[in-house]
Amino acid sequence: MLSERELESCYLGQFIPVHYHHNMLMDTNRMHAFRTAIDHVVKPGMKVLELGGGTGALSFFAAQRAEKVYCVDFNPDMVQEARRFLALNRGGHKVEVIHADAFEYLPPEPVDVVICEMIHVAMLREKQVEVIESFKRRYLQKFGGELPVFLPEAVLMAAQPLQQEYDFEGFHAPIVQFQQPGVPQSGTVEMAQPAVYSVTDFTQPNDASYDWQGKFVIDRDGTVSAIRFITKNILSVVQERATTIDWLNHYMALPLATPVAVQRGDVLQVRFAYRAGGSIPSLQAKLHASVLYRAALQPQVMAYA
């Protein structure tokens, strides 16, 4: 009988359609950020492992400097695709594409860098956290010593209340929406500043569960009808310049089951709980918002001359 994880892999990150991987190649922000970070982290002569290699693009970037790259993917279609593409590219011969489960695979030798891009907004759907935590335990048992450098090094996640329009030519449909960062969103009004709810440092042990309750001071009158989830991936820390190489996922706006009417100055309380790698509906089921304090009912501070 298949385990829960094996059943999930049929519809979560491990078996997303091939054409979705092709779309990722056309995401110029993603590709440029990873190429820049890999160029910074991977030094000549290094050994590199990529977990969840997809088309092999990130392994290709690593192969421009590394001595050897192990590229692992669980999807046989992607293994075939990666081998085909790498054969067309300079340095592709240094990449060994391996059909294996990233939860179980270990390289035959110690590696210097591990690339793992199983990243969905809010760490949902794909198994980034679980795969890396499993890898760290098994790697130390086999090789001991220090862990490799991970790319990304860390992930910051934040939540933000929105007033989101759900009218489609007169058809009302509160749906999950993915939004491109830095681009004005039609029908979207930001109702408060974002609040960070998790900082995941892959060099440290990480819990795969998130249980958060936070407060927001509302900026304007309206209705909070959705919560936006923001995921900023710190691909590499550039210490010599005191800066980072980052990649910002598309935003995800989840509709609230019960929208909340608010006024400027109200304090909104948002709470949610979910498991890294879980489904989007699992987060929606435990996503709630309510007004904790009404601005109109707050004590007024009187100024005396």
Q: Mind sketching the topology for me?
A:
Elements: H1 4-8, H2 18-25, H3 28-41, E1 47-51, H4 57-63, E2 68-73, H5 76-86, E3 95-99, E4 113-116, H6 128-143, E5 149-151, E6 154-164, E7 167-168, E8 171-172, E9 177-179, E10 188-190, E11 195-201, E12 209-217, E13 222-238, E14 243-248, E15 251-262, E16 267-275, H7 280-284, E17 288-293
Parallel strand pairs: 1-2, 1-4, 2-3, 4-5
Antiparallel strand pairs: 6-10, 6-11, 6-13, 7-8, 9-15, 12-16, 13-14, 13-15, 16-17
The total strand number stands at: 17
- Into how many domains do the coordinates divide? 2
Class by alpha and beta content: alpha+beta
Number of helices: 7
The main β sheet shows up as: 7 strands, antiparallel
Low-confidence stretches: 2-13, 300-305
Helix share bin: 10-25%
Could you say which overall geometry the principal axes of the C-alpha atoms support?
elongated
Keywords: Methyltransferase, Transferase
InterPro entries: Arg_MeTrfase (IPR025799), Methyltransf_25 (IPR041698), SAM-dependent_MTases_sf (IPR029063)
Protein name: Putative RNA methylase
Organism: Pseudoduganella lurida
Structural description of this entry:
- There is one protein chain.
- With 305 residues, this protein is an alpha+beta fold.
- It folds into two domains: 4-117, Vaccinia Virus protein VP39 (Rossmann fold), CATH 3.40.50.150; 154-297, Hnrnp arginine n-methyltransferase1, CATH 2.70.160.11.
- Helix content is 22%, strand content 36%.
- It has helices at 4-8, 18-25, 28-41, 57-63, 76-86, 128-143, 280-284; strands at 47-51, 68-73, 95-99, 113-116, 149-151, 154-164, 167-168, 171-172, 177-179, 188-190, 195-201, 209-217, 222-238, 243-248, 251-262, 267-275, 288-293.
- Strands 6, 9, 10, 11, 13, 14 and 15 form a seven-stranded antiparallel sheet that branches. Strands 3-2-1-4-5 form a five-stranded parallel sheet, sandwiched between helices. Strands 12-16-17 form a three-stranded antiparallel sheet.
- Helix 3 (28-41) runs parallel beside helix 4.
- The longest helix is centred in the middle third of the chain and has 16 residues, at 128-143.
- It starts with a helix and ends in a 12-residue tail after the last strand.
- Mean pLDDT is 91; it is low at 2-13 and 300-305.
